[in-house]
Amino acid sequence: MITGAHSVIYSTDAEADKEFFKDILKFTNVDVGHGWLIFGLPPSEVAIHPSTENGPVEFYLLCDDINAFVKQMSEQNIVCGPIQSERWGNITQLTLPGGGKLGVYEPKHARP
Fold first, then answer.
1. Whole-structure pTM value
2. What is the CATH number of domain 14-44+54-107?
3. Mean pLDDT, rounded, for 82-111
4. What's the rounded Cα separation, in Å, for the pair 41 and 65?
């Protein structure tokens, strides 16, 4: 039935953000025409949270060691916010070259 998931990141500088995913994160990709890149993601998960209203949908990248990740990003001149410890994981937000924010966290929970 379901074979995967497709996420979309909207950007005011899509070219810079595509270069980040390709050159810094080193995600595999395919060009589906006219320079439109689709990136492969590592295994993923989805959580359903109770709320008083529907939306928004959030997107995070997961890592094994948030401190090492922040250090690697710093070496590539990518700015990450302070690491916050939450019940479910340690989280930071990195600033994409296009100016958008992307959450990254090291889960404390078991992976499905």
1. 0.86
2. 3.10.180.10
3. 94
4. 18
